[in-house]
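Response to reviewer comment R2.3. The reviewers asked that we include at least one raw input/output pair. We reproduce the pair for MOSC domain-containing protein here without editing.
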Amino acid sequence: MRLLQVNVHPLKSGAVRTLDAAMVHPRGLEDDRSWMLVGPDGRLVSAREAHGLFSIVADTPATDRAVPGALRLRAPGHPDLVVGQPVGAPVPVRLFSLDLQATPAGPEADGWLRSVLGTDVRLVWCHDPARRRLQPGYSSPEDHTAFADAFPVTVASLASLRRLNDWIVERALETGEEPPAPLPIERFRANLVVDGDEPFAEDHWQELTVGDVGFRVAKPVSRCVMTTIDTETLTTAKEPIRTLARHRLVGGKTMFALHLLPLSTGWLRVGDEVSVR
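Raw output as returned:
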């Protein structure tokens, strides 16, 4: 099995940044989901609420060495914005049910994002990922991450996606619908994309080694409505949740891909061999 994609998302819900290589830290891939948007109440604003986030391209020096600051933001029809390293006092923010601390990026970044998205948001940076504790029962006390939904790293299988797309076509034909175009793997926003095993063989994985870096499987990823948003057109549809609910429903949740915890640090590179047990 081989590693086919390495994906980093510097801004939570922003455009996927596909790289040739990335450094793995205990908190996950370098700069993955280090920044996020919050509303006036300090709660997360994601692409669920603001679909336009998918069109914002965020880069850091980890995803583009030419970035002159801590973060560069780009959006169609707007000038680029370079954001310096935030240095102010942390403020309370809310990530789902988690109360966290984050450092505000400042009014210039907030104004730029409001002009792009047309909604009142603030940009914040995770200054200390080590402070965040992860889900008990699936992690150790030392495990941590920045603003990822649950765990530091996710992995998805192209073989499983091909099977899912086949199921989607079958369902469309059963209901007399026009079969949709195959879903791209980017719809699932996985950090690592692998291929070379049987569909949904990952249900039985306990550990992975990618190149020289080890990972432990924490739990499957439960998918939400955000996977139904087309990241190009920003429109929503029934898939893949409708079909996942038919074939991949576990405990009332639709499952696709895996959450991982790093067991070691090091570089991942596209083409690395992937072994599992």
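The two ends are 12 Å apart (CA to CA). DSSP finds three helices and 20 strands in the chain. Further pairs are available on request from the corresponding author.
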